[in-house]
Design brief:
310 residues; alpha+beta; 2 domains; two-stranded antiparallel sheet
Length: 310
């Protein structure tokens, strides 16, 4: 017998033996034939290589919308107001440190009036924190009224607690002011230029005035100033939410802290408007015989002229 015949006979014998033992009978019907067992179907799926995902380019998120801001015009002298016997303004860009304003912004002075109350409160809180002490709830309530209602008795109380004229001297040295005149024992009669006023506003905004613990509190309280020009009820309740804040678009107004100052003298109203924003500080100083409402409108007008829309 030839070798090939012997091989086929052996294979056949093995197949018959497996059939007899039931092995082939146990195979699936489609594969139970001997040929299928010996030669698997060419349609059996072969393992596929896993394909790695092809990276796609990510679309960058759109830039945030540009917001309005304040900027000095090319000709600062173009900003004018009507009916003012004294008028000056200054704008400090906190992003660059540059100060622009009226031609007299570094020389003309006005009595600060209630504008200084933000400093009196800041000075008290900072010095207390430096002594590792905390204000009482009553003190915080009184300081709040000093700012939001422009409460004069509370301002006088904390002015005296701080050492009277020493409070203004610390304002000058700590905030780097250069053209301030102190009227002994009279915080409201302190004389200041518009340029020194915006430096004072910067001092409040950057934390030098109230210190790291209380700056946010001071700025937030200044955002809560309330009452209009007609709400001059007494020395304890005086409406002070007017002026610059009314000339700002909502996107700027919501982040702006203010403290105005105003008093009627023989020569008319002495009015100061101060606004502190994360990007800038603005001061407007006016003396007018036209009334508080006219002065407030002048402050508003200056702010409107400085608004730059993207």
């Amino acid at each position: 017998m030839r070798p090939r015949v012997v091989l086929l006979a052996c294979v056949a014998a093995i197949g018959i033996g497996l059939l007899g033992s039931g092995v082939l009978a146990a195979l699936p019907p489609s594969r139970s034939g001997f040929a299928a067992w010996v030669n698997p179907s060419p349609t059996d799926p072969e393992p596929k290589e896993t394909e790695e995902p092809v990276p796609t380019a990510q679309t960058p998120p759109p830039p945030p919308p540009r917001l309005p801001t304040l900027a000095s015009p090319r000709d600062p002298a173009s900003i004018k107001v009507s009916g003012a016997r004294l008028f000056g303004w200054a704008l400090l860009d906190r992003r660059t440190g540059k100060i622009t304003g009226s031609a007299n912004s570094a020389t003309v002075t006005n009595t600060v009036e209630s504008m200084i109350k933000a400093w009196i409160a800041s000075d008290y809180l900072r010095r207390l924190a430096e002594a590792h002490k905390q204000p009482t709830p009553q003190a915080l309530k009184e300081l709040t009224l000093m700012i939001v209602d422009s409460n004069d008795p509370m301002a006088e109380k904390y002015f005296q607690i701080g050492g009277s004229d020493a409070v203004v001297k610390r304002l000058i040295s700590r905030c780097g002011l250069t053209r301030v005149t102190i009227k002994p024992t009279l915080w409201s009669w302190t004389l200041m230029t518009p340029q020194d006023a915006v430096k004072y506003g910067l001092c409040v905004g950057d934390g030098r005035a109230a210190g790291p613990q209380w700056t946010t509190w001071i700025l937030n309280t200044m955002k809560k100033v309330r009452g209009g020009v007609a709400d001059q009820k007494s020395g304890t309740v005086q409406g002070g939410r007017w002026g610059i804040i009314d000339g700002l678009p909502p996107e700027l107004a919501k982040d702006t802290s203010i403290k105005n100052g105003w008093t009627l003298y023989r020569d008319g109203w002495h009015v100061n408007c101060l606004a502190v924003h994360p990007d800038w500080t603005l001061s407007v100083m006016i003396r007018t015989t036209k009334g508080l409402k006219a002065a407030a409108d002048n402050c508003k007008s200056v702010a409107e002229h400085l608004v730059v829309n993207p």
